What does this fold into?
Amino acid sequence: MAEHFDVLIVGAGISGIGSGYHLQHQCPNKSFVVLEGLDSFGGTWWTHKYPGIRSDSDLYTFGYRFKPWTGVPIATADEILQYMEEVIEENHLGQHIRYNHWISKANWSKEEQTWTVSGKNKVSGETFEITCNFLWMCQGYYKHAEGYTPDWKGMDDYEGRIVHPQTWPEDLDYKGKKVLCIGSGATTATVVPAIAPDCEHITVLQRSPTYFTPRKNVIETADHLRKLGIDETWIHEIVRREILYNQQEFTQRCVEDPDGTAKELLDGVKAYLPAGYDMTHFTPKYRPWQQRIAFVPNGDIFKGIASGKASMVTGEIDRFTKNGVRLKSGEELEADIILTATGFNLCVLGDIDFSIDGSHIDFSDTVTYRGMMFTGVPNMVWIFGYFRASWTLRVDLIGDFVCRLLNHMGKKQVHSVEPVLRPEDKSMELHSWIEPDNFNPNYLMRSMHLLPKRGDKHEWMHTQDYWLEKDEIPKIDLDDPAFTYR
It folds into this structure.
């Protein structure tokens, strides 16, 4: 007979650990287990091993609301893992986590009103089967085992080494080597300044520029409050509110004055570069906030450019050659090592084979309820966080919602809940998961067809707007006709 739990949390990354905390504190009578496919907690911060790996969100908002952050705002992976380990130990969550449990299938039984989750223990090789009443999907949104690398012509001709930062090898020796880094997002902004001092030279090749925001890696408010002897819990809350207020103002300016905001961002970069530097390398074609803006602590990547250890090239690849890359312009870039910092492969709900009574669920045929539930799919929530604000802010919001929903179901003495389109919703137009004109990173655009649809009302979309959702989600009427209980 399969082992049974009230709630099964998938993933022990930043989302899964936070969700476990909320469940334990707000639904203390619910039994639960956390299944993690890797051999430790941490998700991104455990799998990514490239030099300099750090957050690109401040830890006052990327950290949990219930656990004060006391370090510098932009933190290393090791510092984030230490923070998460403290959360696990302080709340005795370790007893609920099972590592190396890789889930392959999940089937909902209408008759039994339960999920049956099956998979394999990667250490023992044994298969397992667990039943649960509710699935809390916290596995992230991209494939950890393999990053996205385009299939360029001539890659087999290249005699050097090609490495995606997501799967950085321990034996990679870049000291004294010529390195080419393809891509210009947050990963590039992290790895380039970390290895540039040891390389002969590192060249960043981008097809199109990215917006960056370089600032000192300090929060003056936090430092000042500490001098006054204020308790860290208060400091955490005050600084979170200050940062979120400033982010809301900045986001609004991106919408109302994109040209002015773009100039402000470019001026911030220009301050770190030599006089007369060609700023076309840092002038994107898209509006600010159509893609994530990478935070650059202390302008370190730009200091590398100013020192001559790093350089920027903007152009499109024609093909790989024996010694490097040839651009469509005819320019050739030689390199001993090529880093493909070219993004993620999107993963929809862990690539698990979901079914209802044995019939496969195609999530692209469903409509999302607030980017966390899906029409026709009972007793399941997916945490998909924010891009314009810290991912973890939504972990806390959804944690409160799920716990409130579970307690509400207990009071109603029902076994299942699923979102349904109300009569007034059935005529609304359906669109892709996120409006491309609103937010359009390449990894999302490549896989949009795999994601659930959205409607034209807040209830039926993932707005990506924390400042809207922080007020709306706590006020959701759990007896709204958008929910069907059984």
